[in-house]
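Now for a specimen:

…
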Amino acid sequence: MEVLWAPWRMDYILGPKPDECVFCIPSDTDEDEERCILFRAKHCFVLLNKFPYNNGHIMVTPYRHVSKLTDLKEEEASEIMKYITISCDVLEKAFNPQGINVGLNIGEAAGAGIAAHLHFQLVPRWNGDASFMAVFGETTVIPQHLSSTYSRLKPLFDSFVE
């Protein structure tokens, strides 16, 4: 397998880990762009992954700090699924991917980078971009800067205001 240089991942791997949970966000929206938050719903929010596996890699996460699906209240689980569906629609409109990986890693052993706070991953895919294992093996090239991706997706999420 050919290995492609992806130095932004090293910032995450070797960089300092915050003491606080990155998914436990403040209620005010002042830092939303800096935190890459694309949309806030009542029980969950959508954000860009700052260390993406592919262009347009986003996440849907509950506000509540929970680590298991069984910890979610029914209204939280329902709203999360709604915004996973909306997120797929937004990604299709913005990037026209040929597929989307949607997943959840529960626990560190399952590959959750932040196991203490559930977060669903949505990764747009194109034929020939790389195999599934290559993407999750950290060997891909991101063709668009994170701030450009944010600018492209944010208005699409804003159009879904309830």
The chain has a mean pLDDT of 85. The chain has four helices and five strands. The beta strands are 37-40, 44-48, 58-62, 99-103, 120-125.
